[in-house]
Write a structure and sequence with these properties.
CATH superfamily of the largest domain: P-loop containing nucleotide triphosphate hydrolases
Number of helices: 10
Mean pLDDT: 88
Low-confidence stretches: 1-6
Number of strands: 15
CATH architecture of the largest domain: 3-Layer(aba) Sandwich
Shape: elongated
Structural class: alpha/beta
Strand order of the largest sheet: 5-4-8-9-3-10-11-12-13
CATH class of the largest domain: Alpha Beta
Strand content: 15-25%
Radius of gyration: 33 Å
CATH topology of the largest domain: Rossmann fold
Largest sheet: 9 strands, mixed
Helix content: 25-40%
Length: about 375
């Protein structure tokens, strides 16, 4: 049988195969491969234990955030954590998991990190060679962006620096990566929910791929500091990270700061632990050391109030021509001050302790006056 002719199709022949039409469709997009889990396969499989960098504070293999206002010392606090892990010691009263850490700094250059590490090293009594499980990256003065908004906008993409950091993580093998700070690493809009979540997802990708925890240091907004939440920008920062800590100057219950060297570290969010826990520390000789409880702060605040009250009333009564003394009797200063309407609830016992402390500090002194036959004493404020 003869082949049927057609102007657009060559005649059929046993020697000439059918022509395959060219596929003019757009190439298919790369479809992501889903991690599909069948729970039935977990039958008889032991439940994996929860892993921590710091028990109940920083979970392993995910992203956490540590916020604090400038000059509170969050960078120093994070560096102390890295050293504690390197030498297997405690960290402000906790027991972190020993291991390697990578500290990526756009805040402090090599010289400043050298000075801070020297204070920590000296306090711990270790050698520089004992810190081999710690690596530092100095990005001060450079473009430190890890996640940036794409040229078309709308999506946060990894930068070449992100790839460089990921390569260092792969080579060194740390189980903790500190990013200091968020303002340098993220160039998107901190109030844009989608961009925030994409950036944290980028950090989670690093954490998952290299089985490392990522701790991002950040600054709170003025509103976050005023409210005590320590937050800034979109609520997605708090919602997307697995743990969020806030480091701030310690305040007593009356809102005062009785000691400028005391800080509190509060768990503001803990997906795998308990929120609201507080660790209190004091800055001393270039590092932070644990301080026993918040009750100590309230005691310091009461003592400071008693001293301020004592000095104020002593000055006022002296101007009015009334002499008071440290001796028991009708002119005993703590007794008189405690009865004064402006004592503000400060007790006689508190005022007595304040008087002794002020005398010891040289803030007030005992001055004798009167004729030689009848010498008396009075308290005066030291100039």
């Amino acid at each position: 049988m003869n082949a049927v002719s057609h102007p657009d199709v060559p005649p059929y022949s046993d020697d000439i195969p059918f022509a395959v039409p060219k596929d003019t469709r757009a190439p298919a997009l790369d479809v992501p491969k889903l991690r599909v889990i069948n729970p039935a396969h977990w039958e008889g499989v032991a439940i994996p234990a929860r892993e921590w960098i710091v028990p109940n504070l920083l979970p392993a293999k995910t992203v956490s955030m540590l916020s604090g206002d400038g000059a509170t010392g969050k960078s120093l606090l994070a560096m102390q954590l890295c050293v504690a892990r390197a030498i297997g010691s405690d960290w402000i009263g906790t027991a972190p998991e020993p291991g390697r850490s990578l500290y990526v700094s756009a805040e402090d250059d090599a010289d400043e990190m050298h000075r801070r590490l020297e204070a920590i090293r000296a306090f711990r009594g270790v050698r520089w060679s004992d810190l081999s499980d710690l690596r530092l990256v100095d990005l001060v003065g450079e473009n430190a962006v890890l996640g940036e908004l794409s040229e078309r906008g709308g999506t946060i993409q990894a930068t070449l620096l992100y790839e460089a950091v990921a390569a260092e993580v792969a080579a060194f093998g740390p189980t903790l990566v500190v990013i200091d700070t968020l303002a340098d690493a993220f160039s998107g809009d901190e109030n844009h929910r989608s961009q925030v979540r994409q950036f944290i997802s980028l950090m989670k990708g690093m954490a998952r791929a290299h089985e490392t925890a990522v701790l991002i240091l950040s600054h709170p907004s003025l509103t976050g500091m005023a409210s005590g939440s320590g937050s800034s920008g979109s609520t997605s920062w708090n919602n997307t990270v697995r743990s969020r800590l806030y480091f701030e100057r310690a305040k007593a219950q009356d809102g005062t700061e009785p000691d400028p060297d005391v800080r509190t570290l509060t768990t503001k969010k803990a997906n795998y632990g308990r929120s609201g826990d507080v660790l209190t520390v004091r800055w001393r000789d270039g590092i932070f050391v644990p301080l026993d409880g918040i009750d100590g702060l309230d005691a310091m605040a009461r003592a400071r109030k008693a001293e301020d009250t004592f000095l104020r009333l002593l000055g006022r009564l002296t101007e009015q021509g009334m002499n008071v003394s440290a001796n028991n009797g009708p002119t005993h200063a703590p007794t008189i001050f405690a009865r004064h309407p402006d004592a503000g609830g400060v007790t006689k016992q508190e005022l007595s302790r304040a008087m002794m402390h002020l005398l010891g500090a040289g803030s007030i002194r005992i001055m004798e006056f009167g004729p030689a036959s009848k010498r008396r004493s009075k308290l005066v404020v030291e100039a």
